[in-house]
Amino acid sequence: MLLAFTGTARSQTNTLDFYVGQALHNSPLLKDYQNQLLSGQLDSAIVRAGYMPQVTGTSINTYAPTLNGYGYDNAISNGGNFSTLVGVNQTLIGKKHLDAQYETIRLQSQGISNTAKISEQDLKKSITAQYITTYGDQQQLQFNRDISGLLRREDSLLKDLTERNVYRQTDYLAFLVTVKQQALQMRQLEIQFQNDLNTLNYLCGIVDTRAVSLQDPGLSLASLPDADHSAFFRQYHLDSLKLRNDRSLIDFGYRPKASIYADGGYSSTLAYQAYKNFGVSFGVTITMPIYDGHLRKKQYSKLDIAERTRTGYKDFFTSQYRQQIAQLSQQLQATESLIGQINDQVKYSEALIDVNGKLLGTGDVKVADFILALSNYLNAKNLLTQNNITRLQIINQINYFNR
């Protein structure tokens, strides 16, 4: 008993928030999304830098010698070409076109952020479900420990009464079988609890095999947000904005484009007054689409198809969402009603156990009746624990949509 007390005293008590926090902190997927968001910030800077003046330096130096009249035609090669230039090129782009490209990056970042929120909800739901399962194991284990303690106390009493011939030896053996069976059941529950606890640690990325006890999850129904503000519906809204922005980018692609350029430096064939061949040049380049083989119209058609696909997925998900919430709410209501009935059954079973326990001490009750009453009590308590866990699992599934 002293060793058991010492082991319990050293055990650590953990909460649901602890495991959820560890899982969120250790998740490589969530870290990946964070890095993608940082990368998106760099994409905006890259676009901005791409439309800044581009300055390049070039140096081209060739020499075409002739020997005894053999060599390249001097009219073509000029005997050589020597140039070292610094050029500046600036693409002229309207603010609306630039904003549309920024919008593409912004929508991508918002999509990643929204996906990260849903993945976070998935992880929370998974960890909470495993925590509830493990907590249920702990509840059943603690209850069976209490029953084992009760059986040990009754065992001493019944053994003494059997030695005094108040009960038959066969009655005591039947009771002893129940005691042994309960010990085996408790050992099985200990193994199950430890396995589920290890699974919980594994899902959270926790390397720990110490004995712990779990606090009540303390789950309650959270108020669900409006569909328009839910992360599960926001992705469809972002997809709609993306398609609209893609249409704008197509339109900008068919507008005239202009760029200005200038260069300066040295360019010469060294054939005549090479020292005077320093200079500059500048100009304007304008491009205007004239005919594209109806490509623009085909691109619009692809966007229209994508919009119909998006609408179909959204409508189907909306229908499933409403149906799932309604079913879960119905299950929760039925489970809570059943828990109330089971609680009444547990009270009656407890009263019967108490009465039979007193009568057992005086030899006024059959051992078989006591064992039957105990069995009914065990079944009622186990059923109560299972339904309490089911209730928490349903709440966890409903709360999954609260973001």
List the helices and strands and how they pair.
Layout: H1 2-10, E1 12-14, H2 16-26, H3 28-50, E2 54-63, H4 74-77, E3 80-92, H5 95-163, H6 169-204, E4 212-214, H7 231-252, E5 257-268, E6 278-287, H8 295-362, H9 367-399
Parallel strand pairs: 1-4
Antiparallel strand pairs: 2-3, 3-5, 5-6
Helix pairs in contact: 2-5, 2-6, 3-5, 5-6, 5-7, 5-9, 7-8, 8-9
Report on the structure:
With 403 residues, the chain is an alpha+beta fold. The chain has a single domain, classed as Outer membrane efflux proteins (OEP). It is built from nine helices and six strands; from the N terminus they run αβααβαβααβαββαα. Strands 2-3-5-6 form a four-stranded antiparallel beta sheet, with no helix packed on it. Helix 2 (16-26) crosses helix 5 (95-163), helix 5 (95-163) runs antiparallel to helix 6 (169-204) and helix 5 (95-163) runs antiparallel to helix 9 (367-399). It is elongated, with a radius of gyration of 40 Å. The two termini are 48 Å apart. The model is unreliable at 1-9 (pLDDT under 50).
In short:
With 403 residues, this protein is of the alpha+beta class.
